[in-house]
Amino acid sequence: MKTTHVLLTGVLCFVIVAFAGAQEAPLLIADAGQAKAVIVAGEGEVAKLAASELEKYLEEIAGADFQVLPAGEAAADGLARIYVGPCDAS
């Protein structure tokens, strides 16, 4: 029993350490008052309303103008996309 416990603890520690180094770069959505992301509104009125609310709050927090695009419309290259609601890309 004790050997099994020690072995499982060792495996768990290995998994935690292995995944601790596999971090992605942080997502930058605004910098110095410039939007670095667009909001993509999914299909349906609820998604459009949620995207509009998100735009309002992000503009207030970041001091940048965020663009809300309908699902399927191309955004400028280099900008991150924040998907709200169901759509083909999310």
Residue-averaged pLDDT = 81
Helical segment count: 2
N- to C-terminal separation? 46 Å
Shape: elongated
Q: Ranges with pLDDT <50 over ≥5 residues?
A: none
Percent of sequence in beta strands: 15-25%
The quaternary state of the protein chains shown equals single chain
Instruction: Please trace the helix and strand order, writing H or E for each element.
Output: HEEEHEE
Number of domains: 1
Helix fraction, binned, reads 40-55%
What profile does the largest beta sheet have?
3 strands, parallel
Structural class, by secondary structure, is: alpha/beta
Please state the CA-atom Rg, rounded to the nearest Å.
20 Å
The beta-strand count equals: 5
Task: Give me the side-by-side strand order of the main sheet.
Answer: 4-3-5
Q: What can you tell me about this protein's structure?
A:
There is one protein chain. Helices cover 41% and strands 19% of the residues. A hairpin with a 2-residue loop joins strand 1 and strand 2 (34-35). The radius of gyration is 20 Å and the shape is elongated. The protein has 90 residues and is of the alpha/beta class. It has one domain (25-90). The strands form two sheets. It has a three-stranded parallel sheet with strand order 4-3-5, with helices on one face. The protein has two helices and five strands; from the N terminus they run αβββαββ.
Which key phrases capture this entry?
90 residues, alpha/beta, three-stranded parallel beta sheet, two-stranded antiparallel sheet, 5 strands, 41% helix, 19% strand
